[in-house]
Design goal:
Blueprint: H1 16-35, E1 39-40, E2 46-48, H2 49-55, H3 61-66, E3 69-71, E4 77-80, H4 85-94, E5 104-113, E6 125-134, H5 139-155, E7 161-167, H6 171-186, H7 194-202, H8 213-220, H9 231-246, E8 252-253, E9 265-273, E10 281-287, H10 291-294, E11 302-308, H11 309-318, E12 331-335, H12 338-353, E13 358-360, H13 367-376, E14 381-385, H14 387-392, E15 394-399, E16 405-409, H15 414-424
Parallel strand pairs: 1-5, 7-8, 12-13, 12-14
Antiparallel strand pairs: 2-4, 3-4, 5-6, 6-11, 7-9, 9-10, 10-11, 14-15, 15-16
Helix pairs in contact: 1-5, 5-9, 12-15
The structure holds adenosine-5'-triphosphate (ATP) and magnesium ion (MG).
Length: 432
């Protein structure tokens, strides 16, 4: 029979033999976030379209070209989240979390949806780990959030990530800078790509972020924001750098980093890898002091970032970083005949209750295919139960590597006795 359909372009399935890699990375993210005091927030996969239009910004590529927006039966315009910041900010405001004391520190692990041209490291459904911190304008907070990303990368043993930082100032100093940029890019009007021509009037800073080779070449000699920062923004930027030094985090100032959201202010940064080609930005973020106000809240200086989990996993794979194998089966119990099958079922349940991974046949196969299956799942020990074993109320567990066999009574103490054998075997340290 022909398949009725296949997965949608730009989406990926995470299959069982891969999912442990995701879980490993996600667990480290959760643990590290916890150490810094960030708690998980989960928000809906879709939101009213205006949230993203305002929160991400009308002039961004995400809003102009990449959103999955549709009208519901109730004639509402809704959008699948293209990123996590706007939804988290909406939830913080809607539930007045600001009344519970500042700063508010949240993290999320979510799927995101963007209608992009699928390629390596660029999908239409992808996943992000992100953090948001609300209610602090201190440069120490900027260094702290960067430090959390850095700890995650260190725990994952990723080597070649460079941190690049910049300051894009506040709306005041940026106005001057916009003027200078506009003037500069005007003189290259005939060479800029079509998208950048539209950016020229509305948001010339976004030209600095253009991926087209011609635009990025022109952008290299454009006026630099650092020369236009007001005193407050300058101070903030230099203090962020001092705190990064205190934290022992290496960085490079890269004046072309501007990021995708419209409401970024002051610090912006990216962690970039050379290991995965042109989609090398694994993590991007910064400060968005104006975002909460833009969404109808009070003035609440905030910051955060998101990292792409698919890209992170690609970097780890390209660098040959080993991810510990998931638990292997401690015991496979084969049952021969109906009565023995029931006993096998009872025994594996006892072993599982005891906290170990055990399996028996649920397909109704004979002994040979059952043992083949035990091999396939990498069972450390196996045991065969037939009429004799039931009668004698004992059976032999076999070490699948050494072939050594030890007899255990098939009673209430089976799991405990088996676990002692398993613990003293060479498999012990593979079970956590
Ligand atoms: P890029 O410049 O690569 O388009 P971006 O500026 O759009 O990235 P952000 O919105 O800051 O990215 O998202 C944060 C992170 O999410 C990125 O650094 C990247 O790791 C990941 N990411 C963004 N878009 C995609 C995508 N389409 N597919 C896979 N990962 C993505
Ligand atoms: Mg993008």
């Amino acid at each position: 029979m022909a398949l009725i359909t296949k997965k949608i372009k730009g989406t990926e399935d995470v299959l069982p033999k891969q999912s442990y890699r995701w879980q490993f990375v996600e667990n480290i993210m959760r643990e590290e976030a916890g150490k810094f005091g960030f708690k998980e927030i989960r928000t809906p996969v879709f939101e009213h379209t205006e949230l993203f239009a305002r929160g991400v910004g009308q002039t961004t590529d995400v809003v102009q070209k990449e959103m999955y927006t549709f009208e519901t039966k109730g004639k509402e315009s809704v959008t699948l989240r293209p990123e996590g910041t706007a939804g988290a900010a909406r939830a913080v405001l809607e539930h007045a979390l600001t009344n519970e004391g500042l700063p508010i520190k949240v993290y999320y692990l979510t799927s995101c949806y963007r209608y992009e041209k699928p390629q390596a490291g660029r999908l239409r459904e992808f996943h992000q780990f992100g953090i948001e911190e609300y209610g602090t304008s201190s440069p120490m907070a900027d260094a702290e959030v960067i430090s959390l990303a850095d700890s995650i990368f260190k725990r994952l043993q990723i080597k070649d990530l460079h941190l690049e930082i910049n300051s894009i100032g506040c709306p005041q100093c940026r106005a001057e800078y916009h003027k200078a940029l506009k003037e500069y890019f005007e003189s290259y009007k005939d060479q800029l790509c079509e998208t950048c021509l539209t950016r020229l009037d509305k948001n010339p800073m976004r030209i600095l972020d253009c991926k087209s080779p011609i635009c990025s070449k022109i952008a290299k000699d454009a006026p630099k924001i650092v020369d236009y920062l007001c005193e407050d923004c300058q101070n903030h930027f230099s203090q962020v750098q001092s705190f990064l030094k205190v934290a022992g985090i290496e960085y490079k100032v890269n004046p072309t980093i501007v990021r995708g959201l419209d409401y970024y202010t002051k610090t912006v940064f990216e962690f970039v890898s050379d290991a995965i080609g042109s989609q090398g930005t694994v993590c991007g973020g910064g400060r968005y002091d104006g975002l909460i106000e833009e969404l109808g809240g009070q003035h609440l200086p905030s910051l955060g970032y998101a990292m792409g989990i698919e890209r992170l996993l690609m970097v780890m794979e390209n660098q040959g970083i080993e991810i510990p194998n998931p638990e292997t089966c401690a015991l496979y119990v084969a049952g021969l005949g109906e009565k023995a099958q029931v006993k096998a079922f009872e025994i594996v349940n006892q072993v599982r209750d005891y906290g170990l991974y055990a399996e028996t046949d649920v397909v109704g196969r004979g002994l040979r295919p059952q043992m083949k299956y035990a091999d396939k799942i990498g069972a450390q020990f196996s045991m065969v139960i037939g009429d004799n074993e039931i009668e004698e109320e004992k059976a032999k567990v076999k070490n699948m590597i050494t072939g050594e066999q030890i007899e255990i009574a098939l009673d209430q103490s089976f799991a405990e006795k088996f676990s002692q054998i398993q613990m003293t075997s060479k498999f012990a340290d593979t079970q956590e």
